[in-house]
Design a protein that fits this description.
Helix 7 packs antiparallel against helix 8. It is globular and about 70 Å long. It has a domain of about 260 residues: Rossmann fold (3-Layer(aba) Sandwich), CATH 3.40.50.1820. It has about 625 residues and is of the alpha+beta class. The strands form eight sheets. The protein has an eight-stranded mixed β-sheet with strand order 29-30-32-31-33-34-35-36, with helices on both faces. A four-stranded antiparallel β-sheet has the order 1-2-3-4, with no helix packed on it. A four-stranded antiparallel β-sheet has the order 5-6-7-8, with no helix packed on it. About 50% of the residues are buried. Helices cover about 15% and strands about 35% of the residues. Keywords: Aminopeptidase, Hydrolase, Protease.
């Protein structure tokens, strides 16, 4: 058996965004490194045969960032984005399968955000911002670049690329709204277009509207508002005409489970098609007939078809299914999925299964010694059914305990731990299991996989029942002799970082904590984070909710900083706009004020996720060193 190193974790490559050809035989995907070594993330385009057992092959050779492969209707070409000509400015390129040539088909100076080949083989729909004007260029040269909020804000607009001439036209539609997503009707009819009032993540997702656009005539039809956070547009035919569906948050709260919404286009009747289902839809995919739905189902995943009577289960899968792609008939699918001990790869087959693995992008992990992973099922203090995962130290059984236990809380909170391979650049179970730790991965309420009510229960109540859900799981493992009660640690990133910071302000049971980009003050996050209104729904109030104390003060870790005695490792990206660096600065200053042992690490140039190779290596090594220091025998 080979030992696991930090280099093995961060130097791997993973497949992304698989795209099945309409004929179902070929599949295109992006191969991306887990970390970045330069200014750009260099990715590659690969082709695989889903019917023959032949190795996938790379079909692009340039050093560039390549993404978003989309097939032509005749399966003869792949359109994709690449910045090979001007790094950082993606353009649409076309790979002709007949001779393997790659050609650039746009030179839009602002770059292209997304693209969709249409049923008309001479047209490709584009999403792109306006090209810079001479005035923009002059102002940039003169450094006359004061930003006036609300003025000259960038918006993605719908544009049409005419392949025969190379001309890009911009229909005068949707005013100054920001275009988010496009989907053409399966019969080659109009485009469904999702727009928002603006592109910022705080305001935009609450202002969605649906439209129809006919690319042949330029005619538009207004369909009305869409739910908060709408995405995954999909058409299907019904007895009463065409239906247009999408995923969105379940109203009225912004912190809520997602649902599949079904709009009957002719009558404008809108229905929630997944109401009351104890699962959470994560993807909705168009076919020529009924669409397919991917459901987060506890620790696992269910694939279903949306029939007139509701979702019909087609297959169930351990762990996760991500980035589903399907042929127009829906008879073949491809997804990213893996196992408890293998990372995600592209798998293909019929929706009812079985799925055959097409790629093997991490052979270097073969033979690595890993900890045994097992699902947990238990009940909260109030009787609610909960689940999670336990990963044991490498080479150990539960009966060999008790072990030092690190609890790693997931982010979101609308996320989940699935029964999949748990090895990532951030603090993860297998990374700590190789160092002798047992690791608990809880799925407290507020997360994904158990329906809307489970998810919405933390709105305005963060750190309450979700925290006791986690404690209940820890107590279970202590009681079973798996966890050493004198060697407990806790870690998490983002919302998991909040719960880690919250934990050490509520109890001194933990010997060490790690807070990665954690929420320390909900009022400050609602004011400065890029998802402000979403955070306000979680924290329960904002700073402008009148004279305090406010509800968010009672659920903010900073309010309990004077109680903290546990040593804390704080990690944060300097350019994080989701949870700004000021959150960790606030915790650092409080711990310094109260004389609490801690370490504060800032990663330059990094956002909410840490991407640079050296930073990922530092984070992994520092994580182990920290817990070894405080939890080691």
């Amino acid at each position: 058996m080979t030992g696991l190193t930090a280099e093995l974790v961060v130097d791997g490559r993973a497949p992304q965004t698989p795209a099945l050809a309409p004929n179902g035989r070929l599949l295109c995907y992006v191969l991306a490194p887990a970390s970045r070594t330069g200014d750009h993330l260099d990715t590659e385009l690969w082709l695989a045969d889903t019917e023959r057992a032949v190795a996938p092959r790379r079909v692009t050779a340039d050093i560039s960032t390549e993404s978003r492969p989309r097939w032509s209707a005749d399966s003869g070409a792949v359109f994709f984005l690449s910045d090979r000509t001007d790094r950082g400015t993606p353009q649409v390129h076309r790979l002709a399968l007949a001779d393997g040539t790659v050609s650039s088909v746009t030179s839009w100076r602002a770059g292209v955000i997304d693209h969709l080949p249409l049923a008309d083989p001479s047209l490709v729909a584009l999403l792109a911002q306006d090209e810079p004007t001479e005035e923009d260029t002059r102002r940039a040269q003169d450094r006359d670049d004061a930003i006036v909020v609300g003025e000259r804000e960038p918006h993605a607009r719908l544009r049409l690329l005419h392949l025969r001439t190379g001309l890009v036209t911009t229909p005068a539609v949707f005013g100054d709204r920001h275009v988010v997503e496009l989907r053409q009707r399966p019969d080659g009819g109009p485009l469904a277009v999702l727009t928002q009032a603006g592109s910022d993540n705080d305001y935009g997702p609450r202002t969605g509207r649906l439209h129809l656009f006919d690319p042949s005539t330029g005619a538009t039809v207004e369909l009305g508002p869409a739910g908060a956070g709408a995405r995954s547009l999909a058409w299907w035919p019904g007895e009463d005409g065409w239906h247009l569906g999408y995923l969105a948050l379940t109203p009225p709260l912004l912190q809520a489970g997602t649902a599949v919404f079904d709009l009957a286009v002719d009558s404008r009747v809108l229905r929630n098609r997944t109401s009351g289902i104890p699962m959470c839809p994560t993807e909705l995919h168009q076919t020529d007939a009924a669409p397919l739905i991917v459901f987060a189902d506890g620790l696992n995943t269910t694939l279903a078809r949306l029939d007139p009577t509701g979702p019909t289960t087609l297959s169930r899968h351990r762990g996760r299914l991500d980035d589903l792609t399907t042929t127009p008939t829906g008879e073949k699918i491809a997804v990213l999925t893996g196992t408890r001990y293998e990372p995600a790869n592209v798998h293909a087959g019929p929706p009812a299964g079985p799925l055959r693995r097409i790629t093997n992008t991490r052979p270097e992990l073969n033979g690595i010694a890993l900890g045994t992973q097992q699902p947990l099922a238990y009940r909260a203090a109030d009787g609610l059914d909960l689940d999670g995962l336990l990963v044991l130290p490498v080479g150990k059984a539960a009966s060999d305990g008790p072990f030092p236990l690190v609890t790693i809380v997931h982010g979101g909170p609308y996320d989940r731990y699935a029964d999949r391979f748990q090895l990532f650049w951030f603090p993860s179970a297998q990374w700590l299991a190789t160092a002798g730790y047992a690791v608990f991965l809880p799925n407290p309420r507020g997360g994904q996989g158990h329906g809307h009510q489970f998810a919405v229960s933390v709105a305005g109540r963060v750190g309450q029942e979700e925290w006791t859900d986690i404690l209940t799981g820890i107590d279970l493992l202590v009681g079973e002799g798996v966890a050493d009660p004198d060697r407990l640690g806790i870690a998490g990133g983002s919302h998991g970082g909040f719960l880690s910071a919250w934990a050490v302000g509520q109890t001194d049971r933990f010997r060490a904590a790690l807070v990665l980009a954690g929420v320390i003050d909900w009022g400050m996050l609602a004011a400065t984070g890029e998802h402000g209104q979403f955070e306000a729904a979680l924290g329960g109030s904002t700073g402008w909710s009148g004279v305090g104390p406010h509800p968010h003060d009672a659920v903010s870790p900073i309010s309990f900083a004077g109680r903290i005695q546990t040593p804390v490792l704080i990690l944060h990206g300097a350019e994080d706009t989701n949870v700004p660096l000021g959150q960790s600065v606030y915790l650092h200053r409080a711990l310094r004020h109260f004389g609490v042992e801690h370490e504060f690490v800032i990663y330059p140039r990094e956002g909410h996720s840490i991407r640079e190779r050296r930073h990922q290596l530092d984070l992994l090594r520092r994580t182990r060193t920290w817990f070894d220091r405080w939890l080691g025998p």
